[in-house]
Amino acid sequence: MTNIYQPFKVKIKKIEKHSDNVKLFRLVREKGKFLKNKQGLIFNPGQFVLAGIFGYGEAPFGPASSPYNDSYLDIVVRRVGTLTEAFHRAKEGDGIFLRGPYGNGFPMDFIEGKDLVLVTGGCGIPPIAAAIEYI
Length: 135
Hints:
Elongation Factor Tu (Ef-tu), domain 3, 3 helices, 6 strands, 16% helix
């Protein structure tokens, strides 16, 4: 898939319950692996994907997995509305769709080699986890 605006189907390989209203979803391509960009990443830390369930819509999520890993993509979903409720009812093996990645991401070239203090909380943790994997 080379068109970031074209949705593609992924399968929920694994679901981890982190709390009553937060789950991590491990997503895999139905055929092949996620494509890498020129830097060898499937996304740049700080970018987001649009994930959706047919009939419920789509929403932005920051990947929580390593940007180097092309075999799966992790997203964290907090139950707050109709779409995220549908995610929380989903089962392992169900299909959803993704588009993206979108956004510029974090300025990783600028911060490389510098001392960092990363402060985050709640559902802001996944994009920072991806940045830590990158560093």
